[in-house]
Write a structure and sequence with these properties.
Elements: H1 2-27, H2 31-38, H3 59-87, H4 92-105, E1 123-134, E2 140-142, E3 146-147, H5 148-156, H6 164-179, H7 190-210, E4 218-230, E5 246-249, E6 253-254, H8 257-260
Antiparallel strand pairs: 1-2, 1-3, 1-4, 4-5, 4-6
Helix pairs in contact: 3-4, 5-6, 6-7
């Protein structure tokens, strides 16, 4: 009996359970609705970051700040320019506006040093030489002036790597001579005599290389001079500078037999 009853009741029990299952399936949310529910809400407008610094000011204050910065920058540029002109060597600008520069500099910004020491050379100095030559037949003649500085200039012009000798040998020899002699070309001590010998050897060697004595001839005496010309003022300057050459002529120097035979190295 129990077995029969249980077997008879089983289908009914299973049927009784089916309506609940149907209700559960009916109550389950749709897949599309579930996916929509899982998605985050659409983003809203990005939050505006607060402005800082000058950008936080109003337009009127920003204009005021820009004007103040421009004034400070202009004042700094003017001050640097005035200091540069004050410490620079004398030039066209300082000669024309020297009083205004001094009024700006003194006394608060006084400088006790100069930008260049010594001042840049504002002259063209050419060293020239001529010679008295003993010819092969026993006669004597005098050459014209050889511009040795111009020869060095032509050798340097267009040369990307000129030698130290081409650039400085003759110039330094002349500077050595002028530094050890007075305006009357009198030597001051042993260094003055040494500078004469050094300069004479250089010019004799240049004459020998240039063939000034001719075939079979020899250089007996040489005379050196300098030709100094001021650098002309720029076209926009009202400064008047004489460009007439000034000469410094040295006495004749006798050349030793060894130097005359080309024994100078």
């Amino acid at each position: 009996m129990n077995t029969h009853d249980g077997g008879a009741d089983a289908p009914e029990a299973r049927e009784a359970e089916r309506p609940g299952e149907v209700d559960a399936v009916a109550d389950a949310p749709d897949a599309s609705e579930a996916s929509e529910a899982s998605q985050p809400p659409p983003p809203g407008p990005a939050p505006v970051e607060p402005r800082t610094g000058v950008a936080a000011l109003s337009l009127r204050y920003r204009i005021g700040a820009a004007v103040a910065l421009a004034v400070v920058a202009a004042a700094v540029c003017v001050h640097l320019g005035m200091v540069f002109l004050h410490i620079a060597p004398s030039n066209t600008v300082t000669k024309a506006h020297g009083k205004a520069i001094d009024e700006w500099i003194y006394p608060e910004f006084e400088q006790n040093w100069k930008l260049f020491a010594p001042n840049p050379l504002q002259q063209n100095v050419a060293v020239q030489v001529r010679a008295q030559v003993r010819t092969a037949d026993g006669g004597s003649r005098e050459t014209g002036w050889y511009d040795l500085s111009a020869q060095d200039g032509r050798a340097i012009d267009g040369n990307l790597l000129p030698s130290h000798t081409q650039q400085n040998e003759l110039r330094r020899a002349w500077d050595f001579f002028t530094a050890t002699h007075d305006d009357d070309n009198r030597a001051a001590g042993v260094r003055g005599t040494l500078s004469e010998s050094y300069l004479r050897r250089i010019v004799v060697l240049r004459l020998e290389r240039g063939g000034a004595a001719g075939a079979g001839g020899a250089v007996e005496r040489v005379q050196v001079r300098s030709r100094t010309t001021n650098v002309a003022a720029p076209s926009w300057s009202r400064e008047k500078i004489s460009t007439d050459p000034a000469y410094r002529v040295l006495p004749w120097w006798r050349v030793s037999d060894d130097e005359a035979r080309g024994g100078v190295q």
